[in-house]
Amino acid sequence: MKIRHNIQTIIAAAGLFFAANSFAAGDIEAGKSKAAICAACHGADGNSVNAAWPKLAGQNEKYLVKQLAAFKAGADGGRTGGSAAQMYGMAAGLSDQDMADISAFYAAQSIKTGVAADDLAERGKLIYQGGIVDSQVAACSGCHGPAGKGNAAAAFPALAGQHADYVYAQLKAFHSGARSNDPASMMRALLPKMSDADMKAVAEYIQGLN
Question: Which of 12, 84, 95, 194 is the one with CA 20 to 30 A from 141?
Answer without folding.
Answer: 84
